[in-house]
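> example.struct
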């Protein structure tokens, strides 16, 4: 028996932790049904974020949703925060079960 799978988009936003409450609000306002947030650390072209002190913390926010919702969230996040905060965004096409949850 084949398991029924349904296509969704996974939007991942890595941002300064100071944005967490605003990002969660933005995600909900644009139609996402849920999200997951993790504390993360890393480095790249602009430096290292070790999370050793409060202002250096970084989060990863994951949202599984329809593509149009993911696009709306990403466009808003870029327009609102990209000029003043460190952040990265990416999309992946995924298959889920229990698609009504997303």
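> example.seq
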């Amino acid at each position: 028996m084949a398991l029924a799978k349904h296509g969704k988009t996974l939007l991942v936003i890595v941002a300064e932790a100071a944005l967490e409450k605003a990002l969660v609000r933005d995600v909900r306002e644009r139609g996402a049904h849920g999200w997951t947030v993790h504390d993360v650390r890393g480095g790249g072209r602009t430096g290292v974020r070790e999370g050793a002190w409060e202002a250096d913390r970084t989060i990863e926010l994951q949202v599984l949703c329809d593509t149009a919702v993911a696009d709306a969230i990403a466009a808003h996040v870029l327009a609102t925060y990209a000029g003043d905060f460190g952040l990265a965004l990416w999309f992946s096409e995924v298959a889920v079960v229990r698609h009504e949850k997303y």
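> remarks
The mean pLDDT is 89.
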